[in-house]
Design a protein that fits this description.
5 helices, two-stranded antiparallel ribbon, 7 strands, five-stranded mixed beta sheet, single chain, 166 residues, alpha/beta, Glutaredoxin
């Protein structure tokens, strides 16, 4: 019996490792077409009608997501956690009007800053090819990391720490 349990645990671990490698390869492939230009935007108009001015001395995470995206829903709690520790701006892509996005945030008790992009102006500027997509810029607003697809809290946290050291 113990032999079978060990066998199945090995199979599960093997599957998780292969799945992780596969998803990272897809992310790398999809990230190739994203904009890698330095961040030139100085401020964002948020969903709550406030203007968010970027800090010149901090790294920033810019996260593109949608209310209808299942992977984005899985990743949203990661973004919520990161927004408590770092400068984070999220951009709701193709998610209808402000009221729809706000309702989604309220239902899930998310407090991160959101820009609504119903006409895909920002997503076009950043050349988004899939959701979720995350950009991490250093304090000089140079792109350090970009990911397409799910990213773990730990991964993004470590990337933000790295971006802060550059």
């Amino acid at each position: 019996m113990i032999h079978k349990i060990k066998h199945y645990l090995k199979e599960i671990i093997y599957f998780i490792v292969v799945l992780t490698i596969f998803s990272n390869l897809i992310s790398i492939y999809k990230s190739q077409s994203l904009s890698n230009a330095p961040l030139t935007i100085k401020y964002f108009e948020l969903l709550n009608n406030k203007t968010y001015i970027l800090h010149d001395d901090k790294p920033i995470l810019i996260h593109f997501w949608a209310t209808w995206c299942p992977t984005c829903k899985l990743e949203a709690s990661n973004i919520e956690f990161l927004s408590k520790h770092f400068e984070v701006i999220t951009i709701a892509v193709d998610s209808k009007d402000d009221a729809t996005v706000q309702k989604y945030l309220d239902e899930h008790e998310y407090t991160f800053d959101v820009v609504n992009d119903p006409h895909n102006q920002l997503s076009s500027k950043f050349k988004i090819v899939g959701l979720p997509t995350t950009f991490i810029y250093d304090k000089n607003k140079n792109l350090v990391f970009s990911d397409v697809g799910y990213s773990s809290t730990f991964s993004m946290y470590m990337k933000m720490l790295w971006a802060g050291m550059k």
